[in-house]
Amino acid sequence: MTNDLATLMRQAQDDDPLLALHATTALRREIERLEAVQVRRARVAGLAWAQIADAVGVSKQAVHKKYGRR
Length: 70
What we know:
Organism: Nonomuraea turkmeniaca
Protein name: AsnC family protein
Mean pLDDT: 93
Largest sheet: none
Number of domains: 1
Order of helices and strands: HHHH
Low-confidence stretches: none
Structural class: mainly alpha
Number of strands: 0
């Protein structure tokens, strides 16, 4: 299976539930990877955990727990 996001989006809507499930799982992993990259970039740029948490839509504690010790 390809990791091209557009392809994965199409596959996630497929009538074959197994293909759609695989694509949805791959999309979730890719989104989580992209979020981690953006959080890291935000921290390097000097943004506070509270600002990042607001952008992500979770509490400061939650975002720090998930990304703070990497």
